[in-house]
Amino acid sequence: MKTSKTSHTYCLLPDNMTKKVFLDTLKEHFIVKQIGFISENFSILETFDWEVYKNNLLAIRHEDHSISLWDEDNLFDIERAKKIDNIAARSKFWWDFPDCEATHTLKPLLKLRALHPIYSGVLKIEQINLQNNEGKILVFCQLMSICNPEHPRTPIMHQIKFTPVTGYAHENNQAVNLIKQLGGFEPSLTPLESLLGAIAVVPKPYTVKPQINIPVEIPARQAVSKIIATMIDKQRLTEPGIIKDIDTEFLHHYRVAIRMVRAAIAQLKEVFPSQDVITLKQRFGDLARETNRLRDLDVFILDQSRYITLVPEAMRDDLLPLFDNFQKSRQVEAKRISKWIASKTYTKEINQLESLFVHGYSATETLWSEKPSIELATTKITKTYKKIHKAALKIDHETPDAHIHKIRIDCKKLRYLLYFFGNQFDSKKIKTVSKHLKSLQDTLGIFNDLTVQGEFLTEYLDQFEHKDDINIRLIASLGGLISVLYLMQKQERKKSIKELAIFSNKANKKLFKETFINKEQGEHNE
Amino acid sequence: MKVIASYSIKGGVGKTAASVNLAYASAKAGNETLLIDLDPQGASSFYFRINVEKKAPKGYFFSKKNRLLKHIKGSNYKGLDILPANLSFRNIEIMLDSMKKSKHRLKDMLSSLKDEYDLIILDCPPNINLLSENVFSASDIILVPVIPTTLSERTYEQLLTFFKKNNYNKKIIHPFFSMAQSNNKLHHATINNLEKRYPEFLKSMIAFSVEIERMGLHREPVLAYASKKSNAQAYRALFNEILSLIKK
Lengths: 526, 248
Description:
Chain A is an alpha+beta fold. Chain A has 3 domains: 9-198, Hypothetical Protein Pfu-838710-001 (Beta Barrel); 207-353, CHAD domain (Alpha solenoid), CATH 1.40.20.10; 372-526, Alpha solenoid (CHAD domain). Chain A contains 18 helices and 8 strands. Chain B has one domain (2-247): P-loop containing nucleotide triphosphate hydrolases (Rossmann fold). Chain B contains 12 helices and 8 strands. Chain B has an 8-stranded mixed sheet with strand order 3-4-2-5-1-6-7-8, with helices on both faces. In chain B, α1 (15-28) packs across α12 (230-247) and α5 (105-111) crosses α6 (130-138). Chain B is globular. The chains are: A alpha+beta, B alpha/beta. Chain A binds chain B through residues 1-4, 79, 129, 134-137, 165-168, and chain B through 32, 48-51, 69-74, 76, 78, 81, 115-118, 219.
C-alpha cells in the first residue's frame, strides 16, 4: 500500500544469543524459511562533513566496489537500495559515477567532496520469511550482523528487522515478542544512530565556520585567543585529508581556517604586543603561501568544463593540453604539500603555534587586552563598516580595480568579524546583515576570481616566451580564454558597483547602526 | 488509480488465471496493486495462499475505507495485496439491492482506495447482475476472456447487447482469446471470424496449457513459478498491452 507506510520493528539481539537459539524459538510458532544470505566485506562511506548522515542516508561500498544508498527507513533492504554499479574502486566523486538515481541523490550532498570509507567490516544479511502451514508469508525478517574482519564469527552488532505483511499484524507482534522474551530489545535511537553507535562510529560533522560563543564580558585577548585556537583546530582537522589527498575541499578549508586566523591577528591586533603581531602574521602567512599554487591549480581543474565552453567550439580541443599540464602539475604539487603537512618541520611549527593560543595567549598587557570583548567587537565592526561605507560611496565607473579589490578585502574582514562575534548581537539582525554582506561578497568574489584567473593564465602564457617548441593553437585558445575572462570581469565589475551601492544605502546604514552602534552606546550608557 | 475487471458471463474461461497473473505482473512492474476477489468461491485468494474470510462482518465491503483496509492482506510478493473473497459475497446482490445508488457502490468504495493503489484488479464471478453493473461502472477496462468456441462467442455477444441496452460505454470492453488450442481447427476458425467481426480483440492470446492448470498445485501465479514458459510470457504480453491501453 502506498500511504500506509510499512513500520519495521528493529530489535538488537544480545551478544550471547546465537542464531540457532533465535531460529529455534521462531520455529516453535512459525514455519521458518531462510531465503537468502549475503556475507561480504563492506565499508561505510561518508563525506568529511557527514552530509550523507545529515540527510538520514547510509552509503556503503560492497566488495565488488559498487555502492548502495539507503534512506534510514530501509537500511540494508537490498530491494530498496539505490545502487551505483560498475564503478572502479577509486571512484569517489559524484562525477565519477554513472548517471543513475543514486548519483542524482548524492550530487547535491557531495558537491566537491569525496565519499571515503569511515568504517570497514564484514556485513552479513540473512532474509527469513515466517510462514504458516499453507506457505503464506506472515512476517518478513532480516537478520543483520556486522563483524570485525579479524573476528568474522563474533558480531559487533546483531540486529533483526521485522517487516509486517499487510493484514498480519498479530503474527508480527507475536514474532517481536518472542525475540524480546529472549532478551532482544528495541533501540531508542533511530536505526542509523543505533547502527553507528553499535559499531562505535561517532558522527563529527565538519564545518569551517567558527560557531564560537564568546561571552561579552571576557577580556578581549582571551576572546581572540579562543577564536584563533578554534580556527587552528579546524585547520588541523583537515590535515589528514590533505595528506591522503581525499578531495580538494580539505585544502580549501585548511586555507579558509588559516585566513580567519590571520584575519583575527591582523584585525584584532591591539590585543597582542605589536612585535608579536608581526611574527604571528609572518608565521601563519608562510603556512598559507605554501599552499597557494596547489589551490590555484585545484580551482582551474575543478572548473575545466566551464573554461572549455568559454572558447569557440573549434578551439576547445586546443585547450586540453593546458589542462593536462595543470593535472600533471597538480599531482606533483599535491604530493609536495602532502609530504610537507606530514613533515616534522610542519608539525613542529603548527604544534608551537597551537600551543600559543590553546590556553590563552600569554604576553604583556596591552591597551586592549583586558577590555571586555564586546567593546572590541563593536569598535572593530563599526570601524570596518564605516570604512566600507565611505569607500563604497566614492565608487564610480572610473574607480581603479585595485580599489574595488580593497573594498572586497574589507568586506571579508567584516564578515569574519561577524563570524567571530556574531553571538554577542541580536541574532535576527545579524542574520539580515550577514545576508546583505554575503550577496555583496559573492559578486565581489566572482570579480576577484576572474581577475586572479586572468593573471594566472597570463603568467602561464609568459613561460612560452622563451620556448622554441610552441603550440600555436594552444596559445591562441589561451589568448581567447584570457579575453573572455577579461570581458566577464568587466561585467562583474558593473554588478559589483551596483551591489556596493545597495550595501551602502540608507536602509542598510540604519540596520548597521541599530545592530552595532546603538548597542555600543547603549552598553556605555548603562 | 486504474481499475481492471476480469469479467465474463460464462464460468471456466480463465478469468481467475488472468486476474492472478496480471496482478502479479503489475506488482512486478512496480505498481502498488490490489486484487479483489469478488468470487465467493475464492479461487484467486486460494492461489495466493489466503483463505476465504468466513467471519467478516456483514456489509464491511461497502463500508468506510478504514474498515475495508483491515480486511486487505499482503501477498507473498512486494506491492501486491489481496482483498480475499468472503462467503458473505454470496448475498452481495441482496445487500446491493437494499442500498441507495446501488449501481455505483463499488465505484465509490474503490475510489476511496485511490491513494493506496496504482492498479486494482477485480476477479469477478460469472454472472450478469447488479454486482456486474457495479463492476461496469467502476472499471476503466473490462477484460473479457473468450474461449474461441461458439458458446463463448454467444456470451460475448450477450454482453455487448447488455451494454448497448443499458447505455454503458462499450469502448471499455477488451476481449482476448483464452484457453485457445493451436491444434483445434474450430478454435482457429472462431478466432478468424471473431477478429474480423470484433476488431477490439486484444492481440495477446493465452493458449490452453497444463502449466496454467498447475497453478492450483503451486498456489502461485504462473509468472512466479514458470516465468520463462511461453504462457507466463503471454500473460506478461497481455499486461503490457493493457498497460498501453491505460496510457492512451
